Amino acid sequence: MALGPIVTSDWLRTHHDGDDDLVICDVRAYLDGRSGREAYERGHIEGARFIDLDTVLAAPAGPVVGRHPLPDPEAFAAGLSLAGIGHGTSVVAYDDAGGMIAGRLVWMLRIHGQPAALLNGGIDGWPGELTTESPESIPVVHAPRPWPERSIVDADQVAAAIADGRLVIDSRGEARYRGEHEPIDPKAGHIPGAFNLPFEDNLVSGSFRPLEELKVRFQAAHVDDETIFYCGSGVSACHNLLAAEAAGFGLGKLYVGSWSGWASDDGRPTATL
Asked: pTM, whole model, 2 decimals?
């Protein structure tokens, strides 16, 4: 089915009943030590399968590659297979953070041309009852696919883009961008020449702004489908990528290593304001 990058609860309730080609994914994860799996087990949308950020959507962290490098295509495909997601399956993903985490899965699927969307408002905006029963998941064949080079850039490509005057967007909050506050990564600040466009500003009370407001936001920043986005570890930047696509600006590029990769390389310059 054709699927834009964001869907509503009403859309999901209408299309999920009896649709074997649509899988709902719970992609909750936390930086404070809480378990996304345990949150899922305490209550989730009926039919949802849990997708783990650290084992399915990322490889182990490391210097230069950052805190959430992309997994090997084989590992990603294996995780999708166990969740019953084939190449032709449509996916709707949610979390409890406005799509900050679930956007990573949606972006990873959409760059392969697979129909996938964020549930607007996430689990907190779901109008139905939650369940503790996990659905039976029948593994399917999901053959590994290489990551599309057009959608992913490395640190050298980021540096070259900035040198050429192309747009690179830092999706973190303003305090981290300015270097006033850095709770996670080894250095504070941002990539010199990057422009700040916090992903949180796509949202109002946990839901996406109307598309016309998103269009004005990204138009004012001169975003296009060649724009490079980054964040702390390549996760929340996907929120900006999906919001920009929904607003009609194409699906840009992700610097997956993001600030955690850039800041761990002593050979890379940094900037503060």
From this structure: 0.96
